[in-house]
Amino acid sequence: MPARPRARRTRGAAPPPVGALARIVAGRALLAGRLQPVEIGIDDDGTIVQIARSLRGEERFDFGDGILLPAATDLHVHLREPGGPGAADSFATGTVQAALGGVGLVADMPNTDPPVTTVDRLVAKRGRADRRLAVDLLLYALATPGANLERLAREAGAFKLYESPTTGVDEPPGPAELRGLLEGVASTGLALAVHAEDPALFRAPETATSLEAWDHARPVAAERSGVARLLPAPPSLRLHIAHVTDPEVARRLRGEGHSFEATPHHLLLNHAGASTTRKVNPPLREEPVRAELYHEFTEGRVPVLASDHAPHLLNDKERPFPKAPSGVPGLETMLPLWLEECRHGSLPLATLLAAACDRPARWLGVPMGRIAVGHRAHLVVVEFRERRTIRGRDLHGPAGWSPFEGRSAVFPRHVLHYGELVVEDGEYVGRPLGRVVRPEYAPGAGATDPTGAR
Ligand SMILES: [Zn+2]
Questions:
Q1: Cβ distance 374 to 287 under 8 Å?
Q2: What's the pTM value of the predicted model, to 2 decimals?
Q3: How far is the CA of 80 from the centre of ligand 1 (A)?
């Protein structure tokens, strides 16, 4: 194999002229609908301040004909801090996986042990992140009937609501409480993500012993009902539905102008087999449903791609089906799996960038996700010639396995965070540059308009 060209890094010998940029990143980028050579100027704070054909600056990274993409935002991860369920990840290990997978911001879920229902717990959780983050982190607070939503909203990045039981939520809200929570979150101005499965329609899930039985026990009907209970949502609420598996639910949400996500596992895997490792909530669906959701996604009709990274150690996952915990790791492989779909022509790159980078960041109100002035210089360099086979043991989380074992993927070659090189030739070389972030602008209820209109 010929030696791969390395990123060429040069530093000016003389002191920089007044007004010079701190750093220039050169490569090719998708701008105005086509790939073209570009130079990106970055200031001392790691913000993109200039984009041109040619720039002068103090330090220069030249990636040649490498393709520069904005880093992704993953709206849905479980990094298991302060704990629960299990301890198969942490802020430190999770954000390194994010960096290696081209994700510049992860939004961490609040259904931990203990759950994030008070300001004290939120502040304590934020304290655990201090100097341990390879990329940026945003913290959800849990919207529960007893919580002081107004106070939580001053510290949290967004809210999460569960319609069915999960870690930290034994008693999900009933219909009247649900309405109150939607109104309550709407009045805070923060965004709300919902796990929408109506437990009234579950059918003895504790007796399931296969993925197909798990699908029947937590059926698509529960998802449809879970979404129906939320609608019509308060007009000012920035609503987002997590892990949609049903194309009909997707069409309904699109019609109502609400944001929603699909995960790589629901898009790429079906309910065949008895493997406990693929037990997830909501369940993997039968092949025709999966194929239709995949089609909706590749046609650009699913606004957001999110991993629902919920790792468990293999020992725990391999318990008998009823006892095996739900969830799969997926943060490090999310973007690489879909870059491979772009490489072989199943997915337009612009569709992927909208779903993985632009819309999720806009939904949160964080200025990143596009190569644009004012956005964070969280950048990914990709060489589409470089495919790799996913092997769980090569991934960087404590779980050490992947539901996508054996699939081809295009991992980022280099990654920059705030304009600094943190992944070089596929290796993590960074320092803990990640920050805990909160919304920086109020995008309004239509911000994630699934049509992509701004
Ligand atoms: Zn989740």
A1: no
A2: 0.94
A3: 11
The answer to whether position 127 is within a domain reads: yes
Q: Domain total for the chain?
A: 2
Are residues 54 and 79 located together in one domain of the fold?
A: no
Sign of the C-alpha dihedral computed for residues 191, 300, 385 and 400 taken in this order: positive
For residues 406 and 323, state if they share a domain. Answer: no
Average pLDDT over residues 183-190: 97
Query: Which residues sit with Cβ closer than 5 angstroms to ligand 1, an ion?
Result: 308
87 and 213, same domain (yes or no):
yes
Among the options 108, 136, 198, 308, which is catalytic? 308
Per the annotation, the verdict on 308 as an active-site residue is: yes
Counting DSSP H helices and E strands in the chain, the numbers are: 13, 19
Q: Is the pLDDT of residue 263 over 70?
A: yes
- d(CA 245, ligand 1 centre) in Å: 13
Domain that includes residue 229, residue range? 71-364
Residue 442, domain member (yes or no): no
Q: What is the DSSP string of 144-169?
A: -TTS-HHHHHTT-SEEEEESS-BTTB
Please tell me whether residue 124 adopts helix, strand or coil conformation.
helix
Residue 345 buriedness (CB in 10 A; 0-12 / 13-18 / 19+) = exposed
Amino acid found at 71 = A
400 and 314 within one domain: no
Reported confidence tier of residue 84, pLDDT bands at 50, 70, 90: confident
Q: How far is the CA of 110 from the centre of ligand 1 (A)?
A: 9
122 and 267 part of one domain: yes
H/E element holding 185?
helix 175-188
Would you say how long the chain is, in residues?
454
Question: How far is ligand 1, taken at its centre, from the CA of residue 230, in Å?
Answer: 18
Q: How many angstroms is it from 78 CA to the middle of ligand 1? A: 7
- For residue 310, the CA-to-ligand 1 centroid distance in Å is 6
For residues 66 and 384, what is the distance between their CA atoms, to the nearest angstrom?
A: 9
Residue 443 pLDDT class (50, 70, 90 cuts): confident
Does 444 reside within a domain?
no
On whether both 150 and 231 belong to a single domain, the answer is: yes
